Amino acid sequence: MCLGIPGEVIELNTEQPDLAKVDVSGVRRSINIALLEEEDVRPGDWILIHVGFALSKIDEEEAQAALDFLKTIGQDYEDELDALRRSQIE
Amino acid sequence: MRFVDEYRDADRAQALAAKITDLCEPGRHYKFMEVCGGHTHTIYKHGLEDYLPENIQLVHGPGCPVCVIPMGRVDDAIHIAQQPDVVMTSFGDMMRVPGSTRSFIDSNADNTDIRMVYSPLDALKLAKGNPGKHVVFMAIGFETTAPSTAMTVLRAAVDEVENFSVFDNHVTVIPAIKAVLDSPDLRLDGFIGPGHVSTVIGCRPYGFIAEDYGKPLVVAGFEPLDILQSIYMLLRQLTDGRSEVENQYSRVVPWDGNQAALRAISDVMELRPYFEWRGLGFISHSALRLRDDYARFDAERLFELPGVRVADPKACQCGEVLKGVLKPWECKVFGTACTPETPIGTCMVSSEGACAAYYNYGRFERSRVKEATRA
Ligand code: SF4
Predict the structure, then answer these.
(1) Searching chain B, which residue's CA lies closest to the CA of residue A72?
(2) What is the pLDDT of residues B286-326, one digit of tens each?
């Protein structure tokens, strides 16, 4: 929960500018990007997600490092990804 | 050195470790606290203590959000869940946290409907889809999750959702560090500062630690190399006679934090005069509650809460573990009565908790031996 999950922005939502479609370890979900309003988020950008909200923009290398770290967590990370899969942010 | 060998950057880690050893003054002992449970996890997972010279000790801090929730608040949440037509929601980590008589999972066996959600926005959606129910989100976490709760409340206000509320248990990291600094039991030489919390609050709020307490703090990332690097930076400061706030994790943490997130928190929430932390007792101005403007989304005002303060079980020494005074394996019930399957204390529940981290990596046996041979 405290640990950010990295994701790649796939497309912005023109109707709801707060939301973006994001690929997180192969799972595509809607993520709220309103807290990055000053960062000009675009498709292809990597973001660090906490409980459904992007809190920072990162580069691809950092995203990979963050993913590697999460994998060391094991079951708890799997559980969080499962929860994310069930998530239906709108 | 089993853990070390598994680690892909072992060579770079060894090189850093050599630099660290060079900087250590012989005969001097150093105690650094890693505030954040994520760091605790990395330290055990990769056996980082094995790289460090004997005179550097890493002490685990209070930065595990699940660990600091007092039992009375779990009881209050269960009480809310028992009210007619209520669906309680929270993060998965909360489900197994023991209250005075039971956890959420136990409570569900008695017909409450407490569900795990990934995001507070999922709880809000659940409310919208179930107009006959009142959906409560039990919000926990430091400044990393507080903005999400705040944004969700703002969204609920815009959408005029009437059957949604928040049971706010957000805590703030600075007063917890201050409580540790003021605790007479512990003499620390510096801090490994939390990574993700700092994404939101930035590095400035730590200034008083350097200025008023004369201790260096380095905000660090979660990779093993990040932590070794930050230990090196702490030692460098001590050797130079400096005490400053430095940012080792600048690739993610901006010096000024995330202004939009801070604004969301302060629009929706205000500091409580005081809040009870599990094991640490009452700490003033250390937690958040909803502002009057959002009273209609405040579960504490919508439901009458028992609010009973429950003393931690006698056997449990989570308080000492959270303050860094005891190592997990020094707790009498560690690994026997208290395991991740049957936790007595909260530090055993979450992967960010120090006791769970020790337990999961099976390091306690070795540490015991190490400690015994040292004594
Ligand atoms: S072993 Fe269990 S009871 Fe003891 S400090 Fe850790 S979590 Fe608390």
Answers:
(1) B45
(2) 999 999 999 999 999 999 898 888 887 778 888 888 888 88
